[in-house]
Amino acid sequence: EGSGWTERALATGVSQDPGLQARVLNNSAGFAWGRAEYATASARAEDALALARSVDDQFAEGWALMNLGVVAAARGDVKQAEAHYAEAEARFLSMGDRHGIAAAIFNQAIIAGLVGDTNRRQALLERSLAESRATGDRMGASWTLSTLGRHELERGHLARARALLEEALTTAREFRFGLIEARVLLLLAHLASEQGDDSQAATYLHDA
């Protein structure tokens, strides 16, 4: 439904306001990325970026750069993705948008993981978590906690992984973040299996 509205808005010309047009284009780019229509997503994000820069709309510019980053990452161009995310972070920093900062840092952490830089990935995830907590973004914090928990699980730091994942699970259940809850339960099942507790692993899998 959101995708349909966005496409109709673009077709009919939702506004002569370049900043608003840029935000609609950003939404369209995000929907196109979700459908794996990367050429469309890239084109929409580039148009959004140009419009945003024409009126110095740093919010729309930051999210256009984020969209270009996720498209680059999906295409396997991690260096370009990292550059877009870093530039987006700079835009969000300049306007004090801590939600945007958290998102840009998180995406840079994903790239660090893809290239095998585990220390950088951990440092970026910790920074992103701190930003999400500072803004009261419960969903962002719980998702980052789950990702950091997975990171610690992969490194064999099982005690810290459990603490992070259990915190993520508590928040996900409190605020009914179903997707995050399911993800955390699967990770906890993996952790329990690593510790030889097959009964607990089965319980987590059942609850997921």
SSE layout and pairing:
Layout: H1 2-12, H2 18-34, H3 38-54, H4 58-74, H5 78-95, H6 98-114, H7 118-135, H8 138-154, H9 158-174, H10 178-194, H11 198-207
Considering the chains and any ligands shown, give keywords for the structure.
208 residues, mainly alpha, 11 helices
Describe the structure.
This protein is mainly alpha-helical. The protein has 11 helices and no strands. Helix 3 (38-54) runs antiparallel to helix 4 (58-74), helix 4 (58-74) packs parallel to helix 6 (98-114) and helix 8 runs parallel beside helix 10 (178-194). The model has no long low-confidence stretch (mean pLDDT 93). The two termini are 28 Å apart.
Give me the secondary-structure category.
Answer: mainly alpha
Strand content: under 5%
Q: Report the order of strands and helices.
A: HHHHHHHHHHH
Give me the count of strands.
0
**Mean pLDDT reading:** 93
Q: What would you call the quaternary organization? A: single chain
Helix content: over 70%
Individual helix count: 11
What Rg do the Cα atoms give? 19 Å
Shape: elongated
Largest sheet: none
